[in-house]
Protein 1
Amino acid sequence: MTTFVNQQDGVFPSVCPLDCPDQCGLLLHKENGKIVKVDGDPNHPVTKGNICNKVRNMKERIHSENRLKYPMKRVGTKNEGKFERISWEEAIQTITSHWKELIQTAGPESILPYSFYGNMGNLTAEGMDRRFFHRLGASQLDRTICQAAGTTGYKYTMGGNLGIDPEDTIHSKLIIFWGINAVSTNMHQVALAQKAKKNGAKIVVIDVHKNQTGRLADWFIPLLPGTDGALALGMMHILFAENMVDNQFLQEYTIGHEQLREHVVQYDPETVSSITGVPVEDIYKLARMYGKTNPAYIRIGNGLQHHDNGGMTTRTISCLPALTGQWLVKGGGAIKSNSSFLAYNEEDLQRPDLLENKHTRVINMNEIGKKLLELDPPIQSMYVYSSNPAVVAPEGSLVRKGLQRDDLFLVVHDLFMTETAKYADIILPATSSFENTDFYASYWHHYIQIQQPVIEKYYESKSNVDVFRLLAKGMGFDDPVFEETEAEMISTSLDHPSNPYLNGINYDTLLEKQYIKANVKPLFPGKLPTPSGKIELYSEKMEKDGHSPLPTYTPIINDGDFPYLFVPAPNHNFLNSTFSNITKHCSLEKEPRLHMNSTDANMENIKDGETVRIWNNRGECELKVTVGENVLQGVVVSQGLWTNAPGTKQLVNTLTPDRLSDMGGGATFFSGRVAVERI
Ligand SMILES: Nc1nc2c(c(=O)[nH]1)N[C@H]1C(S)=C(S)[C@@H](COP(=O)(O)OP(=O)(O)OC[C@H]3O[C@@H](n4cnc5c(=O)[nH]c(N)nc54)[C@H](O)[C@@H]3O)O[C@H]1N2
Ligand SMILES: Nc1nc2c(c(=O)[nH]1)N[C@H]1C(S)=C(S)[C@@H](COP(=O)(O)OP(=O)(O)OC[C@H]3O[C@@H](n4cnc5c(=O)[nH]c(N)nc54)[C@H](O)[C@@H]3O)O[C@H]1N2
Ligand code: SF4
Ligand SMILES: [Mo]
């Protein structure tokens, strides 16, 4: 194996580790052992050398003076920020002796891991950690904060995270970005769409906010939050009524189309218009455009499913391509996520068999605040890694109150002193992905990639894999799975006979090629992993699970008597809360803003640029207002998960609900309501 680390200078291949569908190939330019430039790798077949600005500026983060260098223990009160350097031996000894005692007195379920995908490497994000916590018998975390609702909804229709090959979308003639801010969150899909546009394609964006993606559209369709399901049903109504459906496709590859045809009669354009705020003529225009354009492609985003009805909304939109037979056309169909194509051998990587008690309790991460405060028997220790719940989790005040508990033994493993780490008893320094070995599988394009260490580990920092090895040793777990090398873990993961798409992809071929495309084929003709093997427009499984078996519009839940629906979306230059602590990225983004319709602003006597108080019964924030026509009346939108700079109140998740969505226990960040007033 080549050892990039030992070479002080040169240009080395790498992967973007961030939770972003594009999963770009990178080239790291090294001088004197340090990364001096992060560039796109022109050899990557999809991302082709282009990367976003935030990762171009990644070196500011990787070599930041503020990175954690050593393990530390808390010497002040929680959230005071006073810590003292300790050795790794002391850190591991403190943690494991605490846990051994907890296991004796309260049982292993008193301990909870809390993590998400701060680094998408599979060994880092869901490898050695899973083995460790299974063996420990800790409470299990249901990792629902991102796409759980939409994934569950899409699966009812299509059987899994299966869409089209994004490389085919250059052939599309109609591209609908639906609830996705792709310019910021999937820039290479935008590049492919621009190519399609040169060949005559139209780009439509359906969103609650005319942001940079909306501004790029040939046609921007604003609608009220949480009403997309109704819009899709209105389209179906017109597609059937005006005979724009592909009966042969429906016959051959779907079940339930007769029931659906009758069912959507109720969603006439007038009714749908009154729900969505989209004018009747625009609903006709959209349905006819979709019904008559071939190939038509829908990129289904994450934003539209962060609602009470997010599962059903995604389920409903995912039925559309079947109605017009788009799945058979190159460049037609949809992508919600493509992760099922690259599914690896999770059982062997994560070893769920090591968990003895099959009834171990499961805690939904969206409810972490409430659970820390109310659960009985209580969570007595939490180990946070690759996530920053104090900023990113809903009901933020409850989360921070839970973290503040004096009797909660909190360990945080991160690269930085995050808002969460300030509450820790023990802080452990993490390596960046460029210091580790790992493999990466995109959930949008079809390539698997490998990361080999390019730079030395920063001071005493350690990778997640290494820390869990040490913890296993400290706990006295002598199972050989904790001894496996990264190379062995990658080989184990890719050895997965039940996924033929991975044929020929293994550790050695990855080392040799850096990027390998899965052996994907078009979904049709073919059999889907749904119960019927077909696209399920009518789903008996949904009925069994307590949902309407047909796509149905269900309004979001009334969040209280506050005038505005509040959509606190991500921003362009951060990745969730990552980069919110880097001066460069903050200055690129300038400041957090609240977007408000000018009629609403007039009514509230609020002027552009003023600071406003945004509040509900969960708490309050203060942001500057941008007044204009980029959001509909009754809706306010903020962008970015900012941390509280001194004297500011900009933790937007203070205001968001921890209700669970209709499916998958998903998050409902965008279904909350607020009041807004000038200060
Ligand atoms: N620059 C950047 N890139 C990112 C991230 C980031 O923070 N910054 N985060 C990464 C992660 S973890 C994820 S999950 C993805 C998310 O990326 P996306 O899939 O783009 O999802 P969001 O950005 O959450 O929301 C997308 C859009 O949904 C809109 N929206 C909100 N509610 C509704 C609704 O009811 N209907 C419709 N039609 N639109 C609605 C919002 O206004 C927003 O423009 O991006 C990833 N990439
Ligand atoms: N209001 C609102 N809230 C949201 C969202 C929204 O749109 N609006 N989006 C939600 C979504 S979709 C998501 S996915 C979540 C994401 O929320 P998080 O998973 O918390 O993501 P980040 O904020 O990026 O935090 C990741 C942390 O992991 C650390 N990290 C990176 N690499 C490593 C590593 O190798 N090891 C360790 N130990 N740590 C590492 C980073 O330094 C960073 O502090 O946020 C959710 N919260
Ligand atoms: S964040 Fe997304 S667009 Fe930016 S470099 Fe990483 S994968 Fe590419
Ligand atoms: Mo996410």
Protein 2
Amino acid sequence: MSTIAEKLKKIRADIADTCLQAGRSEKSIKVVVVTKTAGIEAIQEVIRQGFVDLGENRVQHLKQVAEEVAAFLQENQDDPAIPEKVNWHMIGHLQRNKVKQTLQLCRMVQSVDTLRLAEELNTHSHKLGLHTNILLQINCSGEPQKYGAPVGAAIHLAEQFATMPNLRLVGLMTMAPLTMDKNRVRASFARAREVYEEIRGERIGGAKFKHLSMGMSQDFQIAIEEGATMLRIGSAIFN
Ligand SMILES: *Cc1c(COP(=O)(O)O)cnc(C)c1O
């Protein structure tokens, strides 16, 4: 077995264990494999292991890797072990002048944190005839971070995003503070969960609002315990 396959197996086992402890179903967790540091061969191995949700944080790199992956899928279209397509997630800060290019590459943008960005996504989705899934990124870390809307603005932004006809607000995304302090990481995930439940309670986004994207290589177990439905994992697989 390749090291990538072994690492994926370990992550799957860790997710299963944590779910069991937390009384959750493994099926309630989707793993987005973050490929930003990975070479194409490693990514091919990930796809062979059955992972079809892939994430990138830079548009330029996303374009390059998405093309390489598309070529790989094309070459292996007769192989039943290889899926027909993968789903790309944009997970990093998105400049408005890169919106059009991003929409041509992925159907899910996890890092929407301002009204202006949402408006730009809506406008270009309309022009391209698309309905784009978005997550509202919020900053729950309790410290000024560069990206992510403040918690206090979340409900109002969610309401505005949900009215845009070519966007579908399908959940929230957050990043834990950069710290080794597990209590602070947990507190920030718990805060995100509260905001998520509040938005669901108000039925903003309707039944489609069902994703809580939080947890990375260092903290995904805590995120699962605090209610994550989507993990974004890179270095634990590729480094
Ligand atoms: C890089 C990145 C990840 C993955 O982080 P790892 O620590 O490598 O698992 C998750 N989310 C975002 C937004 C990232 O930029």
